[in-house]
Amino acid sequence: MNILIVDDEPRHRRGMMNLILSLSPGNRLNAVGDGEAALKRIREDRPDLVLTDIRMPNMDGLQFLKRLESERPKPRVVMVSAYNLFDYAQEALRYGASDYLLKPVDGSKHEAMLRRIEKELELEERQRHETNEQQRRLGRAQSVYRSRLFADWLEGSLPADEARELERTERLQASGLVIFTEIGIKPRRQDFDAQQVLGRLEKGWSQLGDASSFVLDSWQEGIMQAVTIIRGSAPLSSEERTAIRGCAERMLGDLETYGEVFHGIGPFCALLQAEGADAFRLAREAGSHGIRRSLHGPVFYDERPAPEAASANPEVCANAEAEADALAADCLKWIEEHLHEELTLERAAERFFFNPSYFSTWIKQQTGSTFTHHLTEARMQRARLLLGAGRRIRETAEACGYPDTKYFCRVFKKMHGMSPAAYKHGSIRQVTAE
What residue segments make up the domains of the chain, in order of their start? Predict the structure, then answer.
């Protein structure tokens, strides 16, 4: 415990401190000589327990107790007096004293008082923790329910009674914006907290208006999708778009600690209740289009090429296809340059600013093979070259990114139908014969 002793007699202060240390040496002790000094120390140090004399100059113990009524948090107070007066004890207890001890203090009574107060403090701490935990659980449940209401509203499946409830609590009879956010969560990021991310989104977008963020129900593996409703924002002028990009840029540092961040900005809604669902659909499509462009800021709904325009314009299609082919070639080249390292789909996706699950699908669409197949094929090709040049099997395995030589041998044999040793000897015999 943190204990404060208040007594105008120095020898009494020393005696009380020595007694407490002998009974319970783990306590933290401080001492002052009067009530005014005690009030100052209480505000600075927040003690758990105050042991105070009743008879002191300037402010006696009872006046001190009355002054303590307005302090928060209020420490427990035990009055210590040389006078065995029932009226004093009764008044002290009426003003909130926890106990009344007589001088000279009996050691056994003093120890019993300390143990009792310690148990009371432990019980209060447990109750406070349980109350806080209940509040956190209630807050999470309310957040989940609120997110479900928003998601159903945006999907057009919210029942009429719940629609009225959402309108009452969220004030959708207003103009504003709908912003879609997707975060590709980094692998092995165990401390991801969706509620914390929502708080950061709300704080960041609140510079544009009254912002409320919620999580979409449609979670994918390693992806968080969220929507922010901004009430009272201005129409999308060039100045407003600049302000939106500025908000996104200021949030980027915090959000990117979790993973890649994509924002899609829907059109301005004159009335969110009527236009919000369509704005959300356009914002989500803009965010999907922004997979590669996200590092340059948010993507607005009218910046994405319309599907019919792209298909009708051969130049647009050709440019998009050429860009995808070039990126795929860069990915394969990067794999070949890092074969000796520990390569994973997640690391490759992070290198090229993709969400891992999206990257897995994209690389197969572009090349016809999975990331794992490309990686294994490239490693085996290097292994053949090194073994043919006479390199040792262990050295070859390590150079190809296989720290486990036995595992390397199994992979090599499965792919080539022979062991690395047989392949090496066959290559050497062929070179010798030539």
Answer: 2-105, 148-304, 305-434
**Buried-state track 342-361, b at ≥16 Cβ within 10 A, e below 16:** ebebbebbbeeebbbbbbbe
Confidence of residue 72 (pLDDT cuts 50, 70, 90): confident
The CATH number fitting domain 2-105, selected from 3.40.50.2300, 3.30.470.30, 3.40.50.720, 3.40.50.10960: 3.40.50.2300
**3-class DSSP state for residue 119?**
helix
Cα separation, 339 vs 337, in Å, equals 6
Given a cut of 70, is residue 287 above it in pLDDT?
A: no
Mean pLDDT of the region 344-360: 76
**Architecture of the domain whose range is 305-434:** Orthogonal Bundle (1.10)
How far apart CA 379 and CA 367 sit, in angstroms, is: 17
Nearest one of 226, 263, 232 to 170, comparing CA atoms: 232
CA distance 263 to 213: 13
* Strands ordered across the beta sheet of 28-32: 28-32, 2-6, 49-53, 76-81, 99-102
C-alpha radius of gyration, the chain, whole number: 35
Distances in whole angstroms, Cα of residue 282 to Cα of each of 74, 84, 267, 285: 55, 81, 8, 5
Overall pTM > 0.70: no
Tens-place pLDDT, residues 32-68: 988 888 899 999 899 999 998 887 877 877 888 888 8
